[in-house]
Amino acid sequence: MKKFAFGIAAAAVIGLTSMVAPASATTIALDKANVAAPITDFSSQYRGHRADRGHRFHRGPVCTVRTVVKRGPHGRRIVNKVRVCR
């Protein structure tokens, strides 16, 4: 609860300081030489087919080793390790 209160207080302080700062302190780029050109090459932003919505990775089987304990003759325990893949 203390961290939550500190987080809200920090957000309020940052918000108030941004409102109190004078408008002349902000920088305005009026010079066309300082303005960056828009990105027309979208190949740098391409994230591959993984970014497609609804895409699932098709991984291989997930295998675990389970211990199967049975009772043998005279009540002895027989332990078998069985590999189970799903």
- Mean pLDDT figure: 75
Work out the helix count: 1
How many strand elements? 2
Largest sheet: 2 strands, antiparallel
Low-confidence stretches: none
Distance between the termini: 43 Å
User: What gross morphology would you assign?
Assistant: elongated
Strand order, main sheet: write it out. Answer: 1-2
Q: If you compute it from the alpha carbons, what radius of gyration comes out, rounded to the nearest whole angstrom?
A: 31 Å
Strand portion: 15-25%
Structural class: alpha+beta
User: Approximately how much helix is present in the residues?
Assistant: 10-25%
- What sequence of helices (H) and strands (E) makes up the elements? HEE
Oligomer state of the chains in this structure:
single chain
Describe what this molecule looks like in 3D.
- The protein is of the alpha+beta class.
- The chain has a domain at 2-61.
- It is built from one helix and two strands; from the N terminus they run αββ.
- The protein has one helix spanning 2-20; strands spanning 63-71, 77-85.
- A two-stranded antiparallel sheet has the order 1-2.
- A hairpin with a 5-residue loop joins β1 and β2.
- The protein is elongated and about 90 Å long.
Question: How are the SSEs ordered, and which strands pair?
Answer:
Elements: H1 2-20, E1 63-71, E2 77-85
Antiparallel strand pairs: 1-2
